[in-house]
Specification:
This protein is an alpha/beta fold. The chain has helices at 21-31, 46-50, 66-80, 92-95, 98-107, 138-142, 158-170, 209-221, 231-236, 239-249, 280-288, 342-358, 367-376, 396-406, 419-427, 448-459, 471-477, 480-487, 502-511, 526-532, 546-556, 575-585; strands spanning 36-40, 59-61, 84-88, 111-117, 148-151, 177-182, 225-229, 253-255, 270-273, 293-297, 317-322, 336-339, 412-415, 435-437, 465-470, 492-497, 536-540, 560-565. The longest helix has 17 residues, at 342-358.
Length: 590
């Protein structure tokens, strides 16, 4: 049996002929760089949980809900770039995680979902929480939302099946995978040992050289080029290459909402965010005045990244890069398809451009000066005056201005889905060192930002982690504050408390002549709930108190919740979403 590890795996007493399936799984995951597994025990899963005893190489974090466990695994995967892992029991333990797993699929995050299964001897007999074809078939349930979903049938194949799942999750466009392990097989001897990741999967950095050459030519010929950088740039860690390309040819850069953080918004070439919660700066440059050559990096050009598929965005020549060739050209016709990894493609593009510039080719003359003149005459924010307002209740714009000044430059900023995402995306600033992490793209799962922040902090314990969430999202996943308290994970949650599902509320108001339904609820004492869970907590009701509250929360070194009472009647920058819905309601998505 081949064992590749710093130390040999423990051999439980019931595996007289070798390591158990449970031990093999944990040892293989350690070689993948996994340090934390998020899981909630249940009867059939206990052999897997028991394998943690005496294993100093892995930390088990037990959240308050299985969705929280999966969201935390997403946060871990997003921050580390490695596989995130959640471990759940059968039946409802598995089904409770489905929303979070679907979010991982749409975001391209590699997550391994391990669920228990009833004993093989009970299949088809109606055992408690049977999750086979004779009950609620969890393998089938996970199949549409994962890259792979399978059940272990033979302990001798455990190593091979696990490695197949890890290889599938981590190659190509990454995504979640699911394995169901029958409880009676968990303690059986597992043959085949463990392998170093490099021996069973590769991570090729692919690019299309000919497409890169054509792209370079178009960028040099363009009079008014622009770049739209998406989520894929952040996933690939290609921020430095993007900055180098922009500066080399003086190309203005907008980011999609999910791409926020890929380019520093204080840079002279920044157009800030385009799409959902757009900056007027990017809308004017990309739509009203138009780019003659648009390079799209790491975005599928879905609804929220295109202001509802605005046709003006594709009026010029479009060049689109994506790691998944099937995405390219899906929503806008393209002139150049750049299939491959964002980081590698950008490196090759930079090499090609420098080669051409060295032999005398030139980009657009005076581009930087022309863009500076354009930028001087365009607004960056929709309502900059409200950012200075002393009104009570606190204006959300003022809240974001104070948060922006108080959040450390290298913070990981998790956003939940809702009103808070719109305000934060529009008004907070990407510095180039911070990261904006959220799920409001193609899926938009509420509760994501509340729980994923815990996984993100565990993955990067030295970086400040701020979660900007709404009271609606906090109501869905706020019990995970208790998890953070139990595990001493010092996330700071800033909760926009307006007693509404306010993004939906304002959407209904704009679309239905002021009529709303199902969006309002009795105001919660969020700070009181947080204090009862054991967290540091503070209620903020006046402008000027937000910055000191954030500083105190960070200094506490504890899980902290700041309950901010905001003006519920301020309309967030949601108009592009409303326009999209208006078109969709009548069947017009052209």
């Amino acid at each position: 049996m081949l064992i590749v590890s710093d130390s040999p795996p423990r051999i439980p007493p019931d595996a007289k002929d070798g390591v158990t399936v449970a031990s093999l799984i944990l040892e293989q995951l350690k070689l993948e760089g996994v340090r934390t597994i998020f899981g909630i025990p249940g009867g059939p899963a206990t052999p897997l949980f028991d394998a943690f005893h005496g294993d100093s190489g892995l930390r088990l974090v037990a959240p308050r809900h299985e969705a929280g466990a999966a969201f935390m695994a997403l946060g871990d995967a997003r921050v580390t770039g490695r596989i995130g892992v959640c471990l759940l029991t059968t039946g409802p333990g598995a089904t409770n995680a489905i929303t979070a797993v679907a979010a991982a699929r749409t975001d391209g995050l590699p997550v391994l979902v391990l669920t228990a299964q009833t004993a093989t001897s009970s299949f088809g007999k109606g055992s408690l929480q049977d999750s086979t074809e004779s009950g609620v078939d969890t393998v089938a349930l996970f199949r549409p939302i994962t890259k792979m979903s399978a059940m272990l049938a033979n302990p001798a194949g455990a190593g091979g099946l696990l490695r197949q799942a890890l290889r599938t999750a981590m190659t190509g466009r990454r995504g979640p995978v699911h394995l169901s392990i029958p409880t009676d097989l968990m303690r059986r001897p597992a043959a085949g040992g463990i392998l170093a990741p490099a021996r069973y999967r590769s991570e090729p950095q692919l690019h299309d050289r000919e497409a890169v050459r054509r792209c370079a030519g178009h960028l040099l010929e363009a009079r008014r080029p622009a770049i739209l950088a998406g989520h894929g740039v952040n996933l690939a860690g290609a921020q430095a290459e993007l900055l180098e390309l922009a500066e080399l040819l003086s190309i203005p850069v907008a980011t999609t909402p999910k791409g926020k953080g890929a380019f520093p918004e204080g840079h002279a070439l920044s157009l800030r965010v385009f799409g959902l919660a757009s900056s007027p700066l990017s809308e004017r440059y990309l739509l009203s005045e138009g780019a003659d050559a648009l390079l799209v990096l790491g975005s599928s050009l879905h609804e929220n990244s295109t202001s509802g598929w605005d046709p003006r965005l594709g009026a010029g020549l479009v060049m689109q890069q994506d790691i998944d060739p099937g995405i390219i050209g899906r929503n806008y016709p393209v002139s150049v398809a750049l299939a491959g990894d964002a980081k590698t493609t950008l490196r090759e593009l930079l090499f090609e451009l420098r080669r051409r510039l060295a032999r005398g080719e030139e980009g657009p003359a005076g581009a930087l000066a022309a863009f500076a003149r354009f930028k001087a005459g365009a607004a960056a924010y929709l309502d900059s005056e409200a950012m200075l307002s002393d009104a009570v209740p606190i204006k959300p714009q003022r809240l974001m201005a104070e948060l922006d000044a108080a959040i450390p430059e290298d913070a990981l900023i998790f956003l939940d889905v809702g009103n808070n995402t719109l305000w934060a995306t529009h008004y907070l600033n990407a510095t180039g060192r911070n990261a904006f992490i959220h799920n409001w793209g193609e899926f938009a799962a509420m509760g994501y930002g509340v729980a994923a922040a815990v996984g993100g902090k565990l993955a990067a314990p030295r970086r400040p982690v701020i979660a900007v969430v709404g009271d609606g999202g906090f109501a869905m996943a706020g019990m995970e504050v208790s998890t953070a308290v139990t595990e001493n994970v010092s996330v700071v949650w800033v909760v926009l408390n307006d007693a509404r599902l306010n993004a939906v509320h304002h959407g209904q108001t704009l679309q239905y002549a002021g009529r709303t339904i199902g969006t309002e609820f009795r105001r919660m004492d969020v700070a009181g709930v947080a204090a009862a869970l054991g967290a540091w907590a503070r209620l903020v009701t006046h402008p000027g108190d937000i910055g000191p509250a954030v500083a105190a929360a960070l200094a506490s070194g504890r899980p902290a919740v700041i309950d901010v009472r905001i003006d519920a009647d301020e309309v967030p920058p949601i108009h592009s979403r409303v326009r999209s819905l208006d078109k969709l309601f009548v069947g017009d998505n052209a």
